[in-house]
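Data deposition worksheet. Section B asks for the primary sequence of the deposited chain exactly as it was used as input, without tags or linkers unless they were present during the calculation. Section C holds the resulting structure in token form. Section D is free text for depositor observations; keep each observation to a single sentence. Incomplete worksheets are returned to the depositor.
Section A, Depositor: J.P.
Section B:
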Amino acid sequence: MTIHTEHPFDTPEDDRDQLRRLRGRVGGAVSLWTAGEGIERAGLTVSSFLVATGDPGRVVGLLHPDSDLLDRLQETGTAVVALLGARDERLADAFAGTMPAPGGPFRLAEWEQTEWGPRAVGAQTWAGVRLDPATVHEVGWSVLVEVVVEHVVVGADDTPLVHRRGRYQRPS
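Section C:
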């Protein structure tokens, strides 16, 4: 048995996509976008987003083009954007599709249905948003969406869940 200092199947350093490496080093807070109701709910973990203040405020996010969340957001026109805390790694992984969730990821938390979509009860900071359909377009391997903020709740300032270079990091 050989012990490797690096993953034996990693792409060699010189062959890695430099733009993806740059994006990975930007990092960011992890949010959970949810939309729909009942069995028609969908959600997606999103760390590529920004919040623009103004009147009205907006959130711009990069969503996976084949995600159920994007479909549901376009169907309903509304969603909940919730910030996840360090305690929410399992929930984030399930909605990212990187961890099994028997019965679906919505079984991993308690939910409250809002007029914008489902909100994880444990998510203390969240926004109810409405899609601006004119802003939806493909950007690289993602779909850029812009949503108008209609409602904001800012809860306790928990330790955020931060994703950088393919893993979660806890700010010190």
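Section D:
The chain has one domain: 29-169.
The first strand starts at residue 28 and ends at 29.
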